[in-house]
């Protein structure tokens, strides 16, 4: 039986406080291809129009519309023309803050997750935001889902308590703007945390002299 759902007001506070509180919580997706649940081990906070690294920094668009809605909903986006990633919308309606779910440990539905990621090791099934979405079967169709509704397709639950002494924070991964803001949070020593990668600008070759 699932643990209790997180209430909507859990997502109503400052995003940099909600993010570390999500560690150890359980994200479950009930999909036609099979149910999978993940215990979250790594997350990143983004503060909407106050945060140059946020998708909402330049205002509302068709892509980020869900971020401006009520808290406790999933914002799913497509990136690099290949992958889906998922955020949980936070803060009062209209503030567009969100927490990116970066990594987790599969605690239910491992066989289904392995079928979705057949070339992955067990450790790497949900170790990274795109891998997590693939393992859970999350794609464009889950954008906007309410994660606080009992019996919903996509839900987030109480999990095992995480000792605050084991929570670490550091710069967010792969962002160019506000790259030193320490809003990535993870469980220290957990093998399912992704590898940190700072953004490295691509070198463009200078045009050959004429």
Assign a percent range to the helix content. Answer: 10-25%
Number of strands: 8
Q: Give the H and E element order.
A: HEEEEEHHEEE
The main pleated sheet reads as:
8 strands, antiparallel
The radius of gyration computed from the alpha-carbon positions, rounded to a whole number of angstroms, is 17 Å
Q: Give the low-confidence spans.
A: 206-210
Notes on the structure:
With 210 residues, the protein is mainly β. The chain is built from 3 helices and 8 strands. It has helices at residues 15-21, 110-116, 129-136, and strands at residues 26-31, 34-46, 74-79, 83-90, 97-108, 154-157, 167-170, 184-187. Strands 1, 2, 3, 4, 5, 6, 7 and 8 form an 8-stranded antiparallel sheet that branches. The chain is globular. The N and C termini lie far apart (71 Å). Residues 206-210 have low confidence and may be disordered.
Task: Quickly list its features.
eight-stranded antiparallel β-sheet, mainly beta, 210 residues, disordered C terminus, single chain, 27% strand, 8 strands, 10% helix
